[in-house]
Design brief:
single chain; about 375 residues; alpha+beta; 2,3-Dihydroxybiphenyl 1,2-Dioxygenase, domain 1; 2 domains; nine-stranded mixed β-sheet; eight-stranded mixed β-sheet; 9 helices; globular
Length: about 375
């Protein structure tokens, strides 16, 4: 895709903001369990009166956790309805004003008109549009800023700094949308943001005895930003996407996939810190090499940790999914290591969804 056609050049994910019930405690969890480091803080002490935000960082991944300070806040309404969940998928751009112009004139619905915020460390330009559910994309231009995160935030100093776990950057973020809404949102990403549909899965690809879903993967021009979109499909019982929609009470971000260069090391570390992962039956490994061909890793550690492997034309990938990280069966994380593969683990869908269905059945939601 030539630069000429790419009217919305994206340099990757700038940060992901979650609205949560207790940002102070959530920050402790993400530091302890996932190895994020303290980066920045915003709240009453920095002149922000209606909310508190903690920003955490690990390599190139930034996570912002935001909690409202009053019940009449729109953030509180969001949390009351959805529980903890993603509000903002912020994208790095060279020109936030132009990104807003390009997307809104193509039909994007304004969330934040272009604005420049500044302090003694320079300026950050921001703008934003709405996407599925109550999720928004904020375009962040920070080339003229040298501060810790952005104006309105101060450096967050902490005496408690657990070591990182090898999480590198956001690989992709998956959205769950309502019945028959996948194609309209695919069209939104194509028309409004210039994305391409690089992979499609239908209910023949993604189904078990009980439930099914459809998915299309949207990618920007350089492949730095990928948003798969899922919708439910008809099955005998309730699919995981329907369970999500029921408990999130609407469309939203289902999972965030984070890249690592050593999935065995990362997953061992996460497990030792209390992160719970979905488990596939050990029989998954009986014919693994017949399915995926030769791999560099030893099978035993993969089997011990439950790590899944899949291959495409360009290589293979290793992946593992956490259980939901909040009490509602909504958002979770994927840990992924790519060894050339550009795909999303199609060969693992059945084993993975059966594992999810066992969890659903335990909750009485299948």
């Amino acid at each position: 895709m030539s630069e000429y056609q790419d009217f919305l050049p994206l340099n990757g994910t700038d940060y992901i903001e979650l609205y949560v019930g207790n940002a102070k405690q959530a920050a402790h969890f993400y530091k302890t369990a996932f190895g994020f480091q303290s980066l920045a803080y915003s709240g009453p002490e920095t002149g922000v009166k209606d909310r508190v935000s903690y920003v955490l960082v690990q390599n190139k991944m930034r996570l912002m956790l935001t909690t409202p300070l009053h019940s009449d806040s729109p953030i509180a309404q969001h949390h009351l309805k959805h529980g903890d969940g993603v509000k903002t998928l912020a994208l790095m751009v060279d020109d936030a004003y132009d990104a807003y112009l390009q997307t809104t004139q193509r039909g994007g619905k304004s969330y934040m008109e272009p604005q420049t915020i500044s302090d003694e460390n320079g300026e950050v330009k921001l703008s934003g549009i709405h996407t599925y559910g109550e999720v928004v994309h904020v375009f962040v231009e920070r080339k003229n800023y040298n501060g810790v995160f952005m104006p309105g935030f101060r450096k967050w100093e902490s005496n408690y700094n657990p070591t990182e776990t090898g999480l590198l950057y956001v690989d992709h973020c998956v959205g769950n949308v309502d019945w028959n809404q996948m194609n309209p949102w695919v069209k939104f990403y194509e028309d409004v943001m210039g994305f391409k549909n690089i992979l499609s899965f239908d209910d023949n690809d993604i189904s078990t005895e009980y439930s099914a879903l459809m998915s299309k993967v949207m990618s920007n021009g350089n492949g730095y930003v990928k948003f798969p979109i899922n919708e439910p499909a008809e099955g005998k019982r309730k699919s995981q996407v329907e369970e999500y929609l029921d408990f999130y009470e609407g469309e939203g971000t289902q999972h965030i996939a984070i890249a690592t260069n050593d999935i065995v090391k990362t997953v061992k570390e996460l497990m030792s810190r209390g992160v719970d992962f979905l488990q596939v039956p050990s029989s998954y490994y009986d014919d693994l090499l017949d399915r995926v061909g030769p791999i560099e890793e030893d099978i035993e550690p993969l089997k011990e940790l439950g790590i899944l492997v899949d291959r495409d034309d360009e290589g293979y990938l290793l992946q593992l999914f956490t259980k939901p990280v909040e009490d509602r069966p909504t958002m979770f994380y994927e840990i992924i290591q790519r060894k050339g593969a550009k795909s999303f683990g199609k060969g693992n869908f059945k084993a993975l969804f059966e594992a999810i269905e066992r969890e659903q059945a335990n909750r009485g939601n299948l």
